[in-house]
Amino acid sequence: MYATRPVDLDFLNTAPLRMSFANTLRATPQAVFDAIAHDVAALPRWYGAVAAAEYGGAAPFGVGTKRRVKLVGGVAFHEEVLAWDTPHRYAYRIERTTVPGIRAMAEQWSVLTTPAGTRLVWTMAIDAAVPTVVAVRASAPGIALATRRAMGRLDRMLAG
Length: 160
Prior knowledge:
With 160 residues, the chain is α+β, with helices and mostly antiparallel strands. Helix content is 30%, strand content 42%.
């Protein structure tokens, strides 16, 4: 695995490459936050690109907790939780990854209350070598489609 540079929450606003994906769900903000932050083992049930996700160590989980995520196809991330602001924000930085060229990376899930329902926004912030940036940008339409589908599955799962 490749180690990345430690970053804080400011990186989510200052990274050279930022991408956000959003959808509105019917579930309450608390239910959405719980699905994202508390029930990480269920992530593969609604986000098809994820093969496995788990926290390291015992509950309670929060800022500083370690998390491991493996994507379908073998890409892996070892992460550290940076923000656990129930029910509005869940953020983490990538400490190590199998993806070469990533110098720093953080992600954030924002859960917003709107008149139309709960707005869920996933933001990726990346500092990477040029070939990796090109690959990530080229993957953006696929990431957007996968995320839209995942948020739809999450909405149906929480409604059921």
